[in-house]
Amino acid sequence: MTKRERIAEVAKDQGLDGILLTSGSLRYYAAGSSAEGMVLIAAGGGGYALTDSRYFEALEQTAGPLGFSVVLLRKNLIDSLGDLCARLGIKRLGYEDDTIRLKEYRRLQTGLSCELVPAGEALCTLRQVKSEEEILLIIAAQEIAERAFDDLLSEIRPGRTERELAAFLDYRMASYGSQGRAFPTILISGQNTSKPHGEPGDKALKTGEFITVDFGARVDGYRSDMTRTVALGQIGEEMEKVYGTVLKAQLAGIAALDVQKTGAEVHEAASRVIREAGYGDYFGHGLGHSLGVDIHERPTASPASEARFCAGNVLTVEPGIYLPGRFGVRIEDMIFLSDRGKRNLTKTPKALLRL
Length: 355
What we know:
Elements: H1 3-13, E1 18-21, H2 24-31, E2 38-42, E3 47-51, H3 56-62, E4 68-72, H4 77-88, E5 92-95, H5 102-111, E6 115-118, H6 120-128, H7 132-153, H8 162-175, E7 186-189, E8 209-215, E9 218-219, E10 222-223, E11 226-232, H9 237-256, H10 263-276, E12 288-290, E13 297-301, E14 314-317, E15 320-323, E16 327-330, E17 333-338, E18 341-344
Parallel strand pairs: 1-5, 3-4, 5-6
Antiparallel strand pairs: 1-2, 2-3, 7-8, 8-11, 9-10, 12-13, 14-17, 15-16, 17-18
Helix pairs in contact: 7-8, 9-10
């Protein structure tokens, strides 16, 4: 079943005549392009991509082979959408209530004669289970990221700046076929590693520091995500202890992750290790998240997550310890859950690397 057909099934299950896709992520997911416009999928299975002359030819090449009719706008988008809904007999139209902007919603509300029905939760649930094709794209992105990381290691030395090394990593991913970063690359060092989402700056690397690298590549719209923390030269005893604790916590989280486990249970397995080592106050974020077309998707592993994992989920497992003003450590892998068990999609070693 194609993604278009799966969305049509969601429409039927929700008692809708069709579903309107407005976010770039879902338009890419369904029609292979996030080009400006909207995508309408009827409950009967028909798909329509509405766009203007700037993107018409490109959409015909991407969405056309996926069974979509590409509609060239002859007037404004809302009026054209209204005409299409009237022609298709759409009375109840699902929309992405979890991502749509208020201004855009009001335009739909005033410009369409059909009833607008929230469908964001059902669409989110649909995307949680990845197909074999989607998994292969995530793996391809991960392989690119790991090749680039291998190249980066030989460039890390005292005096190089965070910003130039982040740019080098991004360039190497692009040279290996990445279609852009999965998200803005995090490459930070020394005291900056205590910031979970620190930004690369002009700080020069020094001997005796940690360097944390959190990054990913993108292939055909699908993203990878990994984090490694390495040491530049010899490091102190507590740095060694913190690294070992984070690694132990990550392995505990991976071991706990399984079908039918809740996100809260998996998070607790890793968090417990960090608490027992005396660093419980310094791990403040969730253990992991799903990913695909978006870098953060559901399900997640966090203290508040009661959703149960199932076959087809891809989760990151990324515990960390962050000592403000001193240093931090994070280690992250991607884990795929299947009917045959779990598979770690991240191959780069995790033993502490000293450069």
